[in-house]
Amino acid sequence: MDQRELENAQFEIPGREVPVLGIGDDRPGQGLFQVERYSCRQDLFQNTHKNFSDPFTSLYNPATSTRKRAPSGTSQAKTNRPKLSSKMHLMVFIKIILKCLETDDPDPSVRLNAKRVIAECTKKNREGHPDYTPLEEAIERRLRFAVDDCHWNRAQTLMDHYIMMHSLKQPSGKPFKNKQPNFAQV
Known about the structure:
single chain; 186 residues; mainly alpha; two-stranded antiparallel sheet; 45% helix; flat
């Protein structure tokens, strides 16, 4: 294969082909091309849930989870985070993830599905269903399954930022100034 063929090779993206054009391409209409914007949710949903009839009603099974877990002896970033009450943490995180879905994903069905999952978990928790008794854990498990990892990770990053900024505030609610305290006047 010569250099020209390598430059014009096509890379396979699941369900799509994107032509890679060389810089020196002088063919008319080939110099510019549009990149279609699609969310990472669409590709993940197509690849992950091919064999499920309704993935949002299936039970969570940690034994079949493909997520990698850190070894038990390693420290994780969660240990360095300031603590919020679990109810406050849940409320803020839900607001953040719904805002991420609203701004990032052009498909409104993902946001509506996330709201449905939250409402369903809350309802079953109030009914006393044993799988929904720690409400925070039930919502986290099912909501993480309902939204994909790119939205989840972005919301987690924003939540970490919120906690950091929240922990740097004075009791009055105003953020600290960057000035060093003057201990001579104290």
